[in-house]
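Hi there. Long-time user, first ticket. I'm pasting a complex I've been working with (about 475 residues overall). I'd like to know whether the download I got is complete or cut off, because the file seemed smaller than I expected. Thanks.
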Amino acid sequence: MSVMADGDRAFLDSIIEVADEVAGPHADSVDRDARFPAEALDALRAERALSATIPAELGGGGISFSAVARGCFELGRRCGSTAMVFAMHHIQVATIARHAAGSQWLESYLASVAADQRLVASVTTELGTGGDMGRSIAALQPGEDGVTASFEKQAPVISYGAQADDLFVTLRRSPDAEQNDQVIAVAQRGQFALEQTGTWDPLGMRGTCSPGFVVRAQIAPEQTLATPFPQIMAESMVPITHILWSHLWLGIATDAFDRARAFVRAAAKGSSDGAPPPVAIRLSHLLAELSLLRAEVASGLAEFVEASEEPSRERLLTMTSTLRFNNLKIAASEQAPRVCQGAMGVCGIMGFKNDSPYSVGRHLRDTMSASLMIANERIHQTNASLLLIAKDV
Amino acid sequence: MTDDIRQLIKEFGRLPVDVDTLATDADLYQAGMSSHASVNLMLAIEDHFDVEFPDRMLTRGVFESIDAIAAALTELGVQVPA
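Hi, the file is complete. Here it is re-exported in full:
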């Protein structure tokens, strides 16, 4: 483990404070009312945490990716929804930052995200594509005037769409492009209109406020990322998504474990013969499960950071790398709810009740979303294909 | 070699366009080749030319055009017939 830079340490301290003082105390009401965690987002803005992944020369925090991942973990321990909003925002912002070089528009856009602490939502799923992010139906339509472009996209889900300042949208490059010939566009508030098409009353991650919308926007043609879309996916979006998500799932699972541990400690204090109570054995089993999750999440992050430091980041473009980060997603999304369910097994009825200090219902419900967000079965389908040709996996 | 590659693309690339009209530097993905079809094409090329692409060469870029595939095969020592 390397020693953490001062800027990273200060960033993490501020995130932990927001998690403990703001996100945690509001987590139950955010969950109960399926409302946006506005207090926590205001606090994160006040700490300038929404620009953590933007380079310092553009006015951002210049915080390391590892520290931001750790921030997702810390927020996840206190409020899964806050952590998911924070993570998704940084998936978009970090991806833009990694591919902004050479684009004056994107660089000044990043500077405005930092200056105004703008919140960026993603519009990557679309009705009719079966959850495949590598295909789009909506196309970027060049305007007749040559200085504008427009699009209309039917999104079955946009997380915190109504609260976002800007949108990060996948589209077909042009009206005559194939479905897999895509481009990423950024639309700013004032350039788009959202028409909500559904309601939002889900099992978990209720504070992400993710109903469906129709997005209609008019932007300038330069508001797109020039790097080829498949390269952006392989080099940035896919690994960054899976790493940040898995960190917050680990955070939620860790808090469920901590609550189970607190329950066992309280039970042990009540026993007089000095032997650990029988439920302590179950806690030990649970620690083994949590350790597996922790190890997978840590190694995924370490491999990404190492590959990102190589001059051309070529390793991230290989199929082996895609398999690696797909597996991180599958493993973490299945292991996190397993840990939460184990915690409920330890705490028994006290874990099942919503109003007990050992309650882990929200944790279990929140982590059950993990295998659906980019459905694991779709990822297995991709992996099955890649395994036919990849060698040293 | 490019004729063989073109033939394999016809059989396995599942392109919605006429493969014979594609320039050797045309982007196969932009022409509509899916990720899954590209894996089938890679398998067919390994089989046909009796080579194995090492993991470092299994990237999208290596298979994005007839020229790119030919360059990869040349790197692996496949001889161009005189």
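A couple of notes from our side: The longest strand of chain A covers residues 149-155. Chain A touches chain B at residues 134, 177-178, 180-181, 230-231, 234, 314-315, 317-320, 382, 385-386, 388-392 (CB under 8 Å).
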